[in-house]
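$ ./design --mode recover --in tokens.txt
reading tokens...
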């Protein structure tokens, strides 16, 4: 089945078979609007982040919530799996990013350092680093294993809404409300 996910303006998501155009699951359980969703690489799980301050892990065979990840003090703005699907990273308006173990739901790390909300987050392909983008006009590069902030990327003059690694993980791109993209080597 080839599925797509739709974020709803109410507290549910819907999974659709893109070939048939039919809804395969309605994922209901959040108490607030859903801000971000993503499938894992094997498409057997998906995650959703919400303004209710939780991230839910969904089994795509059954459409059931298998875990609710908690700990943020404000809304979750972005969620992402690492390449293997074993880790989940969340970005929050509370200015922190958290790493969760997908299987257990345990919070393994909290990245603290931004002075504003974190709007975007991602892993590098190798699952060794995490990148966060913030309203404080910086992006930060974090070591997944230690939780250490390795680099603060400064230069944008307004909020950063987008960030990504290249496939090799040695180049970063950020996109900002200042109408620029910046490319960074690390």
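writing sequence...
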């Amino acid at each position: 089945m080839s599925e797509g996910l739709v974020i709803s303006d109410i507290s549910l998501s819907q999974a659709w078979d893109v070939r048939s155009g039919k809804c395969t699951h309605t994922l209901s359980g959040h108490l607030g609007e859903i801000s971000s969703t993503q499938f894992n690489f094997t498409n057997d799980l998906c995650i959703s982040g919400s303004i209710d301050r939780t991230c839910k892990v969904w089994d795509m065979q059954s459409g059931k919530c298998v875990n609710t990840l908690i700990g943020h003090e404000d809304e979750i703005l972005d969620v992402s799996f690492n390449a293997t699907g074993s880790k989940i990273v969340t970005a929050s308006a509370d200015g922190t990013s958290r790493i969760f173990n997908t299987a257990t739901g345990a919070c393994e790390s909290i990245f603290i350092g931004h002075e504003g909300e974190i709007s975007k987050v991602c892993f590098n392909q190798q699952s060794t680093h995490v990148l966060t983008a913030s309203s404080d006009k910086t992006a930060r590069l974090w070591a997944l294993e230690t939780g250490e902030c390795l680099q603060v990327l400064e230069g944008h003059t307004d909020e950063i809404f987008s960030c990504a690694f290249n496939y090799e993980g040695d180049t970063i791109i950020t996109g900002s409300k200042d109408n620029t993209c910046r490319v960074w080597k690390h």
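exit 0
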